[in-house]
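Can anyone check this?
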Amino acid sequence: MSFIVALFLITQLNSSTVCDCHFQKNLARAQKLNYEESDHIFIGRVIERNEDMSFKFEVLETFKGEDLEYVIGSLTDSCTMRPNDDEEFWLVYTNRPDSDGFITMSQCGLSRSFKSPYLLKFISPPPPLHPMDPTLQLESELEYSKHRTEVLEILNTEIEQLRKWKELKKN
């Protein structure tokens, strides 16, 4: 009996900490859906990260939502993410700031940093580097650079599409 209770508790704890994302299979459809479902979309630069896990963006360009100068984000559950580095640029899809002025960035969405623009649900991660063998190191660096260029092109195309949707919404 105690085994069943322990199994139930482990299952409940696991289900409460795992993020349950439902991804589109097609990146273009996911981009359109994220655009439609997000209240606020912008490019921002991380200017502050705090010990309470909050962070602050300087908003550089707004594609959807109110033009704000700064936005403060926070971690609210296991599905939210937080920037790792100050001075990092991000494309952010988010909700309207809540009554306390905070936003959240869902791991299930398309928010991502320019430094690490990999959407693992659509694009495989970069290959690992081989630091011991110089020949393999060079090959893996070239492969990594090629892969990074591809994902940056996807990010750039997405930003251009967001600019087009913003213009269409104005008219």
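Reply from J.R.: I decoded it. Residues 136 and 142 are 10 Å apart (CA to CA).
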